[in-house]
Automatic annotation (TrEMBL):
InterPro entries: SPOR-like_dom, SPOR-like_sf, TPR-like_helical_dom_sf, TPR_rpt. Pfam families: SPOR. The keyword Signal applies. It comes from uncultured Sphingomonadaceae bacterium. It comes from the Bacteria. TPR repeats lie at residues 59-92. Residues 1-22 form the signal peptide. GO terms for molecular function: peptidoglycan binding. Residues 317-401 form the SPOR domain. This is SPOR domain-containing protein. Keywords: Signal, TPR repeat.
Length: 413
C-alpha cells in the first residue's frame, strides 16, 4: 500500500487533517480538509476576524476563524476560538476535536484530555481513540481503537490509527504487526522510523505541526474586540486593559494604532451583545481562563508585555527616531536576536533599520521587546508595519520608550 497510510483518517483525522499522512515527509502530508488549504495570509486572518466582529454570535464564522488560526500555527488563538464555537454550538464535533489538537499543541494535555471527555455522543469511539493518542494518553486511545479495528467494516485508516497509538505508547511490536496489514514490506521499516521520530518530539507543538504541515508562530492571542461574553478570553482582556499603564515617551504626532492582526492593550471593547447569552463555560473554558490569567504561554505574556513601558527614553533612543515598529516581546535576549534574524528573512525592508530592545517587568517577570527603530513620525512607522504585515509578520507602531540598539542582532543580520 502507499505511504499515505502513515497516520490514517477516521472521521476525526478527516476533521483534523483530511487523509492519512506521514508526519515527517512533506509529500505524504494530508491532501484534504484542513491540511489541504493553504496557510492563511495575515490579510486573510484579519478579514476573518472582521467577519466575526460583525457577527459575533455566528458560530460558522468563528469556526472558520479558529481554523485559520490553527492553519497559521497560532494554537492559543485557535484553542480559545474553538471554545467560543462550542459555547455557541455545543454539538459541533469538528470544533471540539480541533480544540483538542490546539490544546495538545500548547502542551496542555490535561486540558486536551478533558476536552475529549466533553465531546458529544456523536463522536465515534474510533475518533476518540485517535484523539486520546494525540492528547497524551495513547494507552486509552489504543483501547478504543482496538474495538473499532475489530468492528465489522473497519478499514485501513482505523488500523493505521491503532498502529500509531501503539507506537506512541511504546508498543512497537504491536505497532509493526498492525501496520503491516496495510503497508508493503518495502515501506514498513521507513514507516516505523517516521513514527519513532513522531513519537519523540522535542517540543509540544511538533506533532500537531507535522501533521498539519504548519509552521508555529508567535501568537498574540485572540483580539480583545472578538471576546465572546463570559468567554475565557474576556477575563484576560479585562485584566490586560485594567493593568495597562501609559508609556513615558514623547507625545505622538498622531494616534498610535496597533496592527490590525494584533490586539492593542487599549483596543476598544465590543458593543453590547444581544440579550441571549452563550452557554455556560465548560471546565475546559474555565481552565483556559486560568491558563491565560496565569500568563501562559509565552505568546500571551509577550502580548501583555507589549503594552508596558520600560525605562524612560534616553537621548540615544531619541536620536533613533521618535517612533518604532515593535515586532515582539520575548523572555530572553537570545530570543530577541533570533527573532530579528527571522524578521529579516521574512521581510527585506527591515535590512536598513536598526534593531533595538528594551526590557520590561510584568508582575515580577522580565521580558525583552524587539523593535525596528528610526522613524520620525507615527505615519512612517505604521507604513512600514503594514508592509511587514503583508509578508505575514505581526507588528505595531508605538513611540520610542527606552529602546536601545541591539548590536549583536545588527551584526547577525
Amino acid at each position: 500500500m502507499g505511504r499515505h497510510f502513515a497516520i490514517a483518517a477516521t472521521s476525526l483525522a478527516l476533521a483534523l487533517l483530511g487523509s492519512a499522512c506521514a508526519p515527517m515527509t512533506p509529500e505524504a502530508r494530508p491532501r484534504g480538509a484542513l491540511a489541504a488549504k493553504t496557510v492563511p495570509t495575515a490579510r486573510t486572518v484579519v478579514a476573518a476576524e472582521g467577519r466575526v466582529a460583525a457577527a459575533p454570535r455566528d458560530a460558522a464564522e468563528r469556526r472558520a476563524l479558529a481554523e485559520a488560526y490553527l492553519r497559521s500555527g497560532r494554537f492559543l488563538s485557535a484553542a480559545v476560538t474553538f471554545s467560543d464555537v462550542l459555547r455557541l454550538r455545543p454539538d459541533d464535533g469538528r470544533a471540539g476535536l480541533l480544540r483538542v489538537l490546539s490544546l495538545a499543541a500548547l502542551g496542555e494535555h490535561r486540558l486536551a484530555l478533558h476536552g475529549i471527555d466533553e465531546l458529544g455522543a456523536d463522536v465515534s469511539p474510533a475518533d476518540r481513540g485517535l484523539a486520546f493518542a494525540l492528547a497524551g494518553d495513547p494507552r486509552r486511545g489504543a483501547e478504543l481503537l482496538e474495538a473499532a479495528a475489530r468492528a465489522s467494516g473497519a478499514d485501513a485508516r482505523t488500523r493505521q490509527n491503532l498502529a500509531l497509538a501503539y507506537a506512541l505508547d511504546g508498543r512497537w511490536a504491536e505497532a509493526r504487526a498492525v501496520a503491516a496489514q496495510d503497508v508493503s514490506p518495502a515501506e514498513l521499516d521507513g514507516r516505523m522510523l517516521e513514527w519513532a521520530a513522531f513519537a519523540r518530539p522535542s517540543a509540544p507543538h511538533q506533532q500537531v505541526a507535522w501533521m498539519l504541515g504548519v509552521q508555529p508562530t508567535l501568537d498574540p492571542g485572540q483580539p480583545v474586540r472578538l471576546a465572546l461574553r463570559d468567554e475565557p478570553g474576556a477575563a484576560f482582556a479585562e485584566a490586560r486593559d485594567a493593568a495597562a499603564v501609559p508609556m513615558d515617551a514623547p507625545a505622538p504626532d498622531g494616534p498610535v494604532a496597533p496592527a490590525a492582526a494584533v490586539a492593542a492593550a487599549a483596543a476598544p471593547m465590543p458593543p453590547p451583545m444581544p440579550a441571549a447569552d452563550p452557554g455556560p463555560a465548560s471546565a475546559v473554558d474555565q481552565a483556559l481562563a486560568r491558563m491565560i490569567a496565569a500568563q501562559r504561554p509565552m505568546a500571551v505574556i509577550a502580548q501583555v508585555a507589549a503594552g508596558f513601558a520600560p525605562r524612560p527614553a534616553t537621548a540615544q533612543s531619541a536620536r533613533q527616531g521618535r517612533f518604532v515598529v515593535q515586532l515582539g516581546a520575548f523572555d530572553s535576549a537570545a530570543m530577541v536576536d533570533e527573532a530579528w534574524r527571522a524578521a529579516l528573512r521574512r521581510f527585506s525592508g527591515l535590512s536598513g533599520l536598526t534593531p533595538a530592545s528594551a526590557q520590561v517587568v510584568l508582575r515580577g517577570r522580565r521580558f525583552h521587546r524587539l523593535a525596528a527603530t528610526g522613524f520620525a513620525t507615527n505615519a512612517e512607522a505604521q507604513a512600514l508595519c503594514r508592509r511587514y504585515q503583508a509578508e505575514g509578520g505581526q507588528c505595531f507602531a508605538r513611540p520610542a520608550a527606552g529602546d536601545q540598539p541591539l548590536r549583536r542582532a545588527a551584526r547577525g543580520a
